[in-house]
Design goal:
alpha/beta; Elongation Factor Tu (Ef-tu), domain 3; Ubiquitin-like (UB roll); 3 domains; five-stranded parallel sheet; about 35% helix; elongated
């Protein structure tokens, strides 16, 4: 019996991912973000003062420290090496001031003093010598947006496997920021906008030091400026980047950063031993981290956030918390950087990719679900959904990937991916699952797959055959020819092993091109008649049916089974979807004016965000995280009404909301809108 099947497209049931269009998918919320909160969602706003006096007093102390230490050393009252260490800590502390200013934590919107915030940020950046305030601010926003992502987190390059690599790369951080700004990040408008201010800053700071050195103060420049800056940069890299995010594999919001509480550490590190609190609520100033931590500690513990005890008595020891690497939600949520464990060549154009999970971990998923693989390619984050092709009971994390002509991700996987490489992996997702959700009894399992549509079907088949029941199973698999039939040897082995209950039909289009390019209704009807002639096969009307493949194949199967009076509730098909949320209801006119004078007109429905529509239409709006955390996409709502933003949105304070600001990544219009990029 012969039929044919066209090459199947990559399939997905994700709401915004998996399309063939190359889009940068910023983030897909996991259970970290969707789980009920144990505290008031907007409570963090109570810890954002109108004026961050603690940070301003810190700045005053830094200035006083320099005013005392440098003259004392130059007059012989303080050894130069000791002065270097003191200046190094002052530079470290100065970063905290710049850091708070960069997050808009010093002065609330609406205050007449708000313009001073940037001035304070620039002043505080001087002790770090080559870290211009505005460039740092935008680079740091990206760190918050993509924490631990090996290709999008600008701080991730410093995380080496060897201690000496960590040291060397940490010292290189400020230079690396400048290099990234003109290479991998130059396509971002918010980065390009920093070029002029960075150049002016470097000319003034480096030029001033050069003038002092040439005037006979080279020794002082080295002891009071250059050496302290190098030491400060190293410790900043350690306590802002490397240690808090170790082992740099988890991307979940409550698990990508750790806490090691303690009073002494809080004083010495200026709050960065509570670094997770800062990532959760970046608008909270450094001296309020402890207060927020104490307020939400029950929730942090319930979510198994990595909290460590330096002594290792009450909690896991320093850098030893398994929650910093383990899967979340008791193994039901995966949002990690995973290592490729094995690559198996299935056919000339198909591979099976297996991933290595954290030690002792297994992903709890249902047969038929998918995971999302992400890779930075051609200047964009490319994300694709691939079905898991092994039953959950096997404990494998394995997908089948077919090389699509012109496919950027599938092309990379087939041509460049190697064992030991790492990819961002997220999941599981999808409602194409076995056992079926309706819980009705069935006496036959009918599976139909076309091309690479076999991947979720194989997981379902394995799960069904592992069941102790004797429910008969039939698989109709349509492929181009035997050489391109994915997992064929494995399927045939299963058919031999379970010959009493499993029947495999393989149909190859190349053997009879005249039949068309899909499994036709007559062929399927004949197959079903043949199979259900056997009394042991049960009743077709009580069969549970799963189909995955090209649209024509799915339509044929559904229509044929419907004519056979199979209950629609028992028909399950994997759906292909577009890469943007489909609009529901009227689409509202949205006019956006950017700071450089450019204007853009968009059509956005109330179930869509301004940012997602802008990205789909190629309109470059300033943005980073896409989740409402960093505030980079802040716009002024000049006219119109929007769906109210959630109170827990960390990127927008209550005063900013009251002043008419919104976030493009969260903004959903209720009517025509006028938005503008505002500098404040």
């Amino acid at each position: 019996m012969k039929s044919s099947c066209q090459t199947v497209r990559q399939h997905s049931a994700a709401p915004t991912m998996g399309s063939t269009k190359a889009t940068e998918v910023l983030y897909e919320p996991t259970s970290d973000e969707t789980a009920p909160k144990l505290h008031d969602a907007g409570m963090w706003q109570a810890f954002v003062p109108e004026l961050a006096w603690g940070t301003l007093l810190l700045l005053a102390g830094i200035l006083l420290g320099y005013a005392l230490v440098i003259p004392a050393a130059m007059q012989g009252y303080l050894p130069y090496p000791l002065a270097t260490l003191v200046c190094a800590y002052l530079a470290y502390a100065s970063f905290t001031v710049m850091h708070d200013a960069g997050h808009g934590s010093l002065i609330q919107v609406g205050s007449r003093l708000k313009k001073l915030e940037a001035m304070i940020g620039w002043l505080a950046s001087i002790p770090l010598l080559i870290a211009p305030y505005r460039l740092f601010q935008k680079i740091h926003d990206r760190h918050h947006a993509f924490t631990n992502d090996p290709e999008r987190d600008p701080d991730h390059y410093s995380f080496g496997d060897k201690w000496y690599l960590v040291v060397l790369n940490s010292l290189f951080i400020p230079l690396q920021y400048h290099i990234m700004s003109v290479t991998t990040l130059r396509h971002l408008k918010v980065i390009r906008a920093t070029y002029s201010s960075s150049l002016l800053y470097l000319v003034l700071v480096v030029g001033s030091l050069a003038m002092l050195a040439s005037s006979g103060y080279a020794r002082e420049v080295m002891y009071f400026a250059v050496a302290p800056a190098i030491i400060a940069v190293f410790f900043l890299a350690m306590f802002f980047d490397y240690i808090p995010h170790h082992p740099h594999k988890s991307l979940g919001r409550y698990h990508n950063t750790r806490i090691f509480p303690g009073r002494i550490g809080n004083i010495v590190l200026l709050g960065q031993n509570y670094h997770l609190i800062h990532h959760l609520y970046p608008r909270v100033p450094w001296y309020r981290y402890v207060d927020v931590y104490q307020r939400i500690l029950p929730e942090l513990e319930a979510r198994r956030a990595p909290i460590e005890d330096l002594s290792g008595k009450r909690r896991p020891a320093w850098l030893q918390s398994p929650d910093a690497r383990n899967l979340q939600d008791e193994g039901r949520t995966l949002h990690h950087v995973l290592r490729v464990k094995e690559i198996e060549q299935l056919t000339p154009d198909a591979l099976a990719i297996s991933f290595e999970l954290p030690e002792g971990q297994r992903l709890d998923y249902q047969a038929g679900q998918y995971i999302t693989l992400s890779k930075w390619l051609n200047g964009q984050q490319q994300s694709r959904c691939y079905s898991l092709c092994s039953s959950p009971a096997r404990g494998q994390l394995k997908v089948g990937v077919k090389h699509l002509p012109g496919g950027s991700v599938s092309g990379f996987i087939h041509k460049q991916l190697h064992v030991g490489d790492e990819l961002v992996v997220q999941g599981p997702g999808g409602d194409f699952v076995y056992p079926p959700k309706h819980q009705q009894r069935f006496d036959h399992l009918l599976l139909v797959a076309g091309g690479s549509g076999i991947t979720p079907i194989l997981a379902i088949l394995e799960s069904a055959l592992e069941d102790v029941s004797d429910t008969p199973v039939t698989l109709v698999y349509v492929s181009r020819d035997r050489a391109h039939c994915m997992f064929l040897k494995h399927l045939e082995a299963l058919a031999r092993q379970h010959h009493n209950r499993f029947k495999l039909y393989t149909l190859f289009s190349a053997e009879n091109a005249a039949t068309g390019h899909t499994l036709n209704a007559d062929t399927l009807t004949q197959l079903l008649s043949l199979r259900f002639e056997d009394a042991k096969a049960g009743n077709l009307q009580k069969a549970e049916c799963y189909v995955c493949g090209p649209e024509g194949l799915k339509q044929t199967v559904v229509e044929t089974l419907s004519k056979q009076m199979v209950d629609p509730l028992r028909l399950h098909s994997e759906e292909f979807i577009a890469g943007i949320t489909a609009p529901k209801g009227p689409q509202h006119s949205v006019h956006v004016t950017l700071a450089d004078g450019q204007s853009h007109h968009l059509k956005v429905a109330s179930n869509q965000t301004v940012l997602e529509v802008a990205k789909a239409e190629g309109v470059a709006l300033p943005h980073a995280c896409g989740t409402g955390t960093c505030g980079t996409c802040k716009l002024k709502l000049d006219k119109g009404d929007i769906v109210p933003l959630a109170g827990e949105t960390p990127g927008l304070t209550a005063p900013e909301s009251a002043a008419g600001f919104t976030l493009a990544c969260q903004c959903r219009p209720l009517e025509a809108l006028s938005l503008s990029e505002s500098r404040f």
